């Protein structure tokens, strides 16, 4: 499997969110490069903290836009975000406890989630917000 990479079909035509999605893929690509290598828990903990903090900022940005413009799919979208936040938090906890290791399979699963989320959820708010003049 190739490292995660943002592609043109993921564009939502909202500049700030497109740039954040690109950064999301960059962080996942960095994790992909670290997966399965002999790094100490501190190094991986820092990389995962970077992912967690970025996810929080990105999801908050999307949710604020959806809320501000009364996007009808807001609640369902927010729940999807919450599930992913929990998944990352659980993995971080398992890593701290020595119950998990960062693998290509794990990063690939996170990447698949992101790709699915953008194409099946973000594209819906994209057309809605674009129709409100948000680009």
What are the salient characteristics of this protein?
mainly alpha, 4 helices, elongated, 135 residues
Q: What would the principal axes of the Cα set say about the shape?
A: elongated
Q: Please give the largest β-sheet.
A: none
Task: Kindly estimate the percentage of residues that lie in beta strands according to DSSP.
Answer: under 5%
| Broad CATH class | Mainly Alpha
Regions with little confidence, pLDDT below 50 for 5+ residues: none
Structural class: mainly alpha
The separation of the N and C termini measures 33 Å
CATH superfamily: Hemerythrin-like
By CATH, the topology is Four Helix Bundle (Hemerythrin (Met), subunit A)
> What is the count of structural domains?
1
User: Total number of β-strand segments?
Assistant: 0
**Rg, Å, rounded:** 15 Å
Estimate the helix proportion, in percent: over 70%
- How many distinct helices? 4
Give a description of the structure.
With 135 residues, the chain is an all-alpha fold. It has a single domain, classed as Four Helix Bundle (Hemerythrin (Met), subunit A) (Up-down Bundle), CATH 1.20.120. It is 73% helix and 0% strand. It is built from four helices and no strands. The chain has helices at residues 15-34, 41-68, 74-96, 104-131. α1 packs antiparallel against α4 (104-131), α2 runs antiparallel to α3 (74-96) and α3 runs antiparallel to α4 (104-131). The longest helix has 28 residues, at 41-68.
């Amino acid at each position: 499997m190739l490292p995660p990479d943002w592609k043109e079909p993921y564009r939502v035509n909202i500049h700030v969110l497109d740039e954040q999605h690109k950064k999301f893929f960059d962080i996942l690509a960095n994790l992909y490069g670290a997966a399965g290598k002999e790094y100490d828990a501190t190094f991986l903990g820092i990389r995962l903290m970077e992912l967690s903090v970025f996810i929080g900022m990105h999801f908050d940005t999307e949710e604020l836009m959806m809320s501000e413009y009364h996007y009808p799919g807001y609640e369902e979208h927010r729940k999807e975000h919450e599930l992913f936040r929990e998944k990352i938090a659980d993995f971080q906890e398992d890593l701290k406890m020595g119950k998990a290791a960062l693998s290509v399979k794990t990063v690939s699963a996170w990447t698949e989630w992101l790709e699915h989320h953008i194409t099946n959820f973000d594209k819906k708010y994209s057309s809605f917000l674009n129709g409100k003049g948000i680009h």
